[in-house]
Recover the amino acids of this structure.
C-alpha cells in the first residue's frame, strides 16, 4: 500500500507542477489535459478554456510521487490545514527550494534554525498550497 499526496488546483496546475519540478529537482512523469483524456464523465462539465486544464499529472521527487490536477467538478478552494513537508539534508537545499517558490507566497514561519532543524520555513505558495521545507537535523 502507498499513500500518494494529491494536490488540486483551479486552473494553475501546469504552472505549479513546472515550479515544483524546478524547486525540488523533480521529474514530471505524466501530464494529461482534459482534452487529451476525453473522459465522458468530465466532457460535459468543461468550459472551452478548461480543455487545457490538467486532468492528471504526476511529479516524482526522489522515490516519492505527488499527483496533481485541476479540479472542474467542484469549486476550487484552498485548504491550509493540510500541507506537505519536504525534508532535505542541508540548509542550502532548503534555501534553494524556497528561493524558487517564495514569489507570491505568504510566509507562516520565517526561515530559521529550530531545536529539530538547522533550517525550516513554512509558507503558503502562490497557488494556495501550504509547504514546510526543512532539514531533519541541527548540524547541516
Amino acid at each position: 500500500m502507498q499513500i500518494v499526496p494529491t494536490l488540486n488546483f483551479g486552473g494553475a496546475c501546469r504552472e505549479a507542477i513546472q515550479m515544483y519540478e524546478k524547486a525540488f529537482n523533480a521529474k514530471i512523469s505524466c501530464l494529461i489535459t482534459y482534452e487529451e483524456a476525453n473522459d465522458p464523465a468530465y466532457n460535459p462539465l468543461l468550459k472551452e478554456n478548461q480543455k487545457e486544464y490538467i486532468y492528471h499529472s504526476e511529479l516524482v521527487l526522489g522515490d516519492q510521487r505527488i499527483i496533481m490536477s485541476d479540479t472542474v467538478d467542484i469549486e476550487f478552494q484552498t485548504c491550509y490545514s493540510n500541507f506537505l513537508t519536504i525534508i532535505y539534508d542541508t540548509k542550502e537545499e532548503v534555501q534553494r527550494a524556497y528561493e524558487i517558490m517564495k514569489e507570491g507566497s505568504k510566509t507562516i514561519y520565517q526561515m530559521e534554525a529550530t531545536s529539530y532543524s538547522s533550517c525550516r520555513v513554512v509558507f503558503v505558495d502562490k497557488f494556495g498550497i501550504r509547504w514546510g521545507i526543512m532539514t531533519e537535523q541541527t548540524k547541516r
Observations:
- The chain has two domains: 6-70, 84-135.
- The two ends are 33 Å apart (CA to CA).
